[in-house]
Amino acid sequence: MPEGIPDIEVKAFYDILKSVAEQYGFLDEYTEKQYISLAKDVKDVVDDKTQYIDWDKKADIKAQLKVQIILTLAKHKYPPATRDEVFKAIFEQAENFKKNKTYISTVTVIPYPMDEEDNSYSLAAEATK
Fold it and tell me: CA 110 to CA 97: how far, in whole Å?
């Protein structure tokens, strides 16, 4: 992970921003420090707007998220020339990242009961003793 990136979530947004910049030909217009700062700000916006249950099903919250991401990108002068497809790509990536992160963080692993006598686990299709 590049120096200055505090966590995996910021790294995910950093990767999104750099990937979009590379795709649209303006990767070298920003420094690593600028990408990291922007990634932190985008993560903060996404965290703030997606803290509500079913945020992804509520049009008003999604609209607020989109506007806040665009304003945050504009504050950092990203992209160097306004391109709707850049905003759309970043918004979609941010939305997908948050949906998948939420799903992953809510999955609970429940181990099968262990048979104390022979130190084995029951398989899903086997009845426990």
Answer: 25
| Residues 61 and 55 sit within 8 Å (Cβ to Cβ) | yes
Using left for φ > 0, alpha for ψ between -120 and 50, and beta otherwise, residue 71 falls in alpha
Give the total residue count for the chain.
129
Q: Which residues of the chain have pLDDT under 50?
A: 102-112, 123-127
Residues 6+ apart with CB under 8 A from 9: 43, 47, 97, 101
* pTM (2 d.p.): 0.71
The predicted pLDDT at position 108 comes to 41
Quote the pLDDT of residue 82: 80
Structure-token pair, residue 45: 């916006």
- What is the SS3 assignment for 120? strand
